Every structure is written in structure tokens, then in C-alpha cells.
From TrEMBL:
Record InterPro entries: Kinase-like_dom_sf, Prot_kinase_dom
Tree of life domain: Eukaryota
Protein name per UniProt: Protein kinase domain-containing protein
Domain annotation Protein kinase: ranges: 1-83
Taxonomic path: Eukaryota, Fungi, Dikarya, Basidiomycota, Agaricomycotina
A GO term for molecular function: protein kinase activity
Length: 83
């Protein structure tokens, strides 16, 4: 998923990472996924390296869990690069 945002210091295209849960009525599963996302945010915010994209923000309200926002990199995915 990708989108555009104007509220960042450098407006432009962004990547939005969202996690969907097929069984949204399972409150324990939703809580566990939420904890994992919060942990990823906490770790990502602390990472400072030229080869790691800066964490920009989260988006809430488009699903049960927050989505992570970073700058869009148009050169393909890491998965395709590693293949």
C-alpha cells in the first residue's frame, strides 16, 4: 500500500505498512499483534543508519491495528533484490 502525505517535513510519496488479522473477533490475537507492532515501532525509532529508512509516523483508524509510515523507495522491494 502506498500514499501521499503533506504533513511531513519533506512532503512526497510514502509507504504504509499495515497488518490485517483474518480473525478480528479474537481479542487475544489482536492484542498480541498490537504488542508486536508497538515493539517494531519502538525498535525502528531507535535505528539510525544510512541504509535504514527513517520512521515517520503511524496511521490509526483504517483498521484494528495501527499502520506504519515511511518514505517510499521506488527501486523495488528488498525481497526482489535478494532474489
Amino acid at each position: 500500500m502506498s500514499g501521499s502525505v503533506l504533513g511531513l517535513n519533506n512532503p512526497g510519496d510514502v509507504a504504509v505498512k499495515s497488518v490485517s488479522i483474518p480473525q478480528s473477533d479474537d481479542t487475544q490475537l489482536v492484542e498480541k499483534a498490537g504488542q508486536m507492532i508497538r515493539r517494531e515501532i519502538y525498535v525502528w525509532i531507535g535505528l539510525k543508519h544510512n541504509n535504514i529508512l527513517e520512521f515517520h509516523s503511524i496511521v490509526e483508524g483504517s483498521g484494528l491495528l495501527p499502520a506504519l509510515v515511511s518514505r517510499w523507495m521506488g527501486n523495488g522491494s528488498l525481497d526482489s533484490y535478494l532474489r
